[in-house]
Specification:
single chain; Uracil-DNA Glycosylase, subunit E; five-stranded mixed sheet; 54% helix; binds iron/sulfur cluster
Length: 227
């Protein structure tokens, strides 16, 4: 099963590397498919690669990436524990916003990433990521000022998860009030979500060994009664 996921993921990355489905392929040095563990419960989705990301082919490696790492820390997470990607995988020229048609062309990749990883929580960073993910789940997008710090129950192509909405770290670099909001969203709302997921996981891990033990006792009894 795990091998299938890894194989499918490898194919997906290869497709993204060769993709020419929208004009952004003409401007990229490197596409940025995403990075992180495939068996994580948490995905982080930004808007589009910037200059450093385009040069390195990795998401969130510039100043916004450093801030993201700190914000993840406030939510009780390390970067290595989450899968990070963007709504569009190639850099828009001059770091302009991605256009609707580019987002539409690239969306199947994000959907396939979600289906492979099956996260319990997606942290949507910025307006484009939040709007795209909420609308994909049939939910209403209004504005970042109204919806940041909120978490929504959602289903994306059969994957049940929750979407946490917050600002993009790049927006906070030169705007201290947005930085404060981001810190609050990560340190409070998103932290609670992460704790909930950790508790569920701990419960499951606590129950499963018990079941395994019970099964082996029953097997033992079964064997004893027939011997
Ligand atoms: S942004 Fe997405 S759809 Fe457009 S060329 Fe890059 S990978 Fe393909």
């Amino acid at each position: 099963m795990r091998n299938n996921v890894e194989e499918e993921y490898r194919k997906l990355v290869e497709e993204i590397r060769n993709c020419k489905k929208c004009p952004l392929h003409k401007f990229r040095k490197n596409p940025v498919p995403g990075e992180g563990p495939l068996d994580t419960d948490i995905m982080v989705v930004g808007e589009a690669p910037g200059r450093n990301e385009d040069l390195q082919g990795r998401p969130f490696v510039g100043a916004a990436g450093q801030l993201l790492n700190k914000l993840l820390g406030l939510a009780g997470l390390e970067r290595a524990q989450v899968y990070i990607t963007n709504v569009v995988k190639c850099r828009p020229p001059g770091n302009r916003d991605p256009r609707d048609e580019e987002i539409r062309a690239c969306l199947p990749y994000l959907i396939r990433q979600t289906q492979l990883i099956k996260p319990k929580l997606i942290i949507a960073l910025g307006r484009h990521a939040a709007r795209t993910l909420l609308e994909l789940a049939g939910l209403k997008w209004q504005s970042m000022s109204k919806q940041h710090g909120h978490v929504y129950d959602a289903s994306i192509e059969g994957v049940k998860l929750r979407i946490a909405v917050t600002y993009h770290p790049a927006a906070a670099l030169y705007k201290p009030p947005i930085r404060e909001q981001l810190k609050k969203d990560f340190g409070e709302t998103i932290r609670k979500e992460v704790e909930r997921i950790k508790q569920l996981k701990a419960k499951k891990e606590h129950v499963e060994p018990k079941l395994t033990r019970q099964t082996s006792i029953l097997e033992f009894l079964g064997r004893s009664s027939t011997s």
